[in-house]
# Entry
Amino acid sequence: MNKRDKESGGLYAALSAYSGSDYYPCHMPGHKRSKAAGDMARYYDIDITEIDGFDDLHHAEGILRDAMALANEIYGAGETFYLVNGSTGGVLASIMTAAERGSEILIARNCHRSVYHAAVMQELTLRYCYPPLLEEYDICDGVPVREIERLLERYPDCRAVVVTSPTYEGIVSDIGAIAEAVHARDKILIVDEAHGAHFGLDKNMPEGAVAQGADLVIHSLHKTLPAMTQTALLHVQGDRVDQRKLRAYLRMLQTSSPSYVMMASMDSCMRYVRAHGAERFAFMRRQYELFCSKTDRCRYIHVGRMSDLAKKPHHLTDWDIGKLVIFTRHPAYNGRRLYDILRQEYHLQLEMAAGDYAVAIMSMMDDKEGWQRLADALVQIDDRIERESLCAAVQSGQTASLKADGRMEDGAPETVKPVAVMRAADAFFGRREEVELSCAAGRVAADFIDLYPPGVPLLVPGEIISGGLIARIEACRHMGLRVRGVSASGKTAVLAEY
# Structure
């Protein structure tokens, strides 16, 4: 064990010490930490199973108990659990604990598909809260508190409420006010805060859902903090949640052979945040401000931020600085084209592309070069768009069609609200057939259709497929966006008998 391991302590240090000992592994895993395994051998040194001294995730009494206690201390919940199959496992366990089979649940329509999967598994009836769209942006606003109150009055049998905050685009809802409204009616509030694991860890970041009173909060450590892919946390607090049932579902939904490499990553992440978080988050804030200062000159590209909404009605409380939502204001440069240019010409790989924008995720671990490269690239692309626009306008004589800020005249997007005719579970498990999407108008969906990322369903099983939705999906496919639920040949699943 080297000096750094000794100073850092925790699970990684213990695993490193064990791998350097003379204990021979007459146990799983089968690679036996052998150097003969080839290039992957370097990853095997700390990959073990639940041997003596290394605890059991599902009955933690030693080193894993201490590691989860550290995470709990940092976030301040009642109890914190490691998740080794991502936030999905935490979402499933939370919903299945809070809502009994066959019951009702209220969810924000922009929730991740894992929320809908839980509804299918528990045969739940879904009631929806539709967050309004932000004016000028084709993204969801925060969840309106009054709408939650109205819907809970209308559907008093809902066992729990599920909201996503922050959203994939970084929009933060008023979780404190929502928690008060939900708890006043003796319901459970579940917050999918997968993209906000950094919330509440520093004054430069928004307050987290745990501190605002949510009963169950799910964090993807790997999305915004220095942890390996697939690592996540589940926090529970208060007396509304049956923790015995929650633990049982976690045992059912997670592997009985959790990866010690991933768990060491989680422990190391928490230790790093505790030791260096203040410094790194302050650095991140400074780089964000410099980035905004540099890109403010752009006319055709705009990075959305909280100050945009100062004089406009909205329901969000913050816009995460780690989510750079880069909007294009020219019809020839949609989100997909911007995404492709940044990747192919500037070697900047963004997180995702949508119709009118692309998303870059920045974290406490990004360096100055990364921030500057992205800012410089956006300024250069903006200059290119301006040159092309002026040339095209002069040639066509249509300079008046451009607004002063470079945007084309366009109507505000409308929220699509599909009509459900049955429970998602009944449709999902019903007899289905494959039909051309173009011929599916009026049919009932038998599977999910969503853009990935972010994995928010455009269509849920049991909903009628409308012509307008077909047009929207086809437009997404035409732009090269990844649409799941529609095959490469253009077919989708519908109920055979409806």
Notes: Residues 424-495 form a domain with the Molybdopterin biosynthesis moea protein, domain 2 fold (CATH 3.90.105.10). The two ends are 65 Å apart (CA to CA). The longest helix spans residues 260-295. Residues 1-7, 398-414 have pLDDT under 50 and may be disordered.
